[in-house]
């Protein structure tokens, strides 16, 4: 399975996710399904191109599909996006306009304490990211009882 960041790096896949999000927000039934042909018409791309991208999104767990005869209806499954959110949170809480001195003064921290806290935060985020991938990799493999 592809890394979630690699999956959403493609602009077409992000466009598909955005369309499905809009549909989800508009849906009264809270499922927000769209057919492949609806997605094709909104993006103006070929059906094989959209289907290829939907397959990648489906394999990453970002979309779910319901089959009805020959038609496929896709919906957003945003749970895997929490991995991206977890990665982004430390960046969103940073005031890039504040100077190090202002941050230290607000927090009452000395520069050594701030550096130590930043190192711990980075180590925690890196470890959390690595552990989530290790767990996903381990749970995706089919384990057999050895004879």
Q: Can you describe this structure?
A:
This protein has helices at 4-9, 11-26, 36-43, 47-59, 81-92, 100-107, 111-140, and strands spanning 34-35, 63-68, 71-76. Strand 2 (63-68) and strand 3 form a beta hairpin. It folds into two domains: 4-76, Arc Repressor Mutant, subunit A (Orthogonal Bundle), CATH 1.10.10; 94-140. The protein starts with a helix and ends in a 7-residue tail after the last helix. Helix 5 (81-92) packs antiparallel against helix 7. Residues 142-147 have low confidence and may be disordered. A three-stranded antiparallel beta sheet has the order 1-3-2. The protein has 147 residues and is mainly α. Helices cover 63% and strands 10% of the residues. It has seven helices and three strands, in the order ααβααββααα.
User: Mind summarizing the main beta sheet?
Assistant: 3 strands, antiparallel
How many domains is the backbone divided into? Answer: 2
Fold-level CATH name of the largest domain: Arc Repressor Mutant, subunit A
Strand order of the largest sheet: 1-3-2
| Percent of residues in beta strands | 5-15%
Beta strands, count: 3
Distance from N terminus to C terminus (CA atoms, Å) equals: 29 Å
What is the overall number of helices? Answer: 7
Helix content: 55-70%
Order of helices and strands: HHEHHEEHHH
- Name the CATH superfamily classification of the largest domain: Winged helix-like DNA-binding domain superfamily/Winged helix DNA-binding domain
Radius of gyration: 21 Å
| Overall pLDDT metric | 80
Content-based structural category: mainly alpha
- What's the shape? elongated
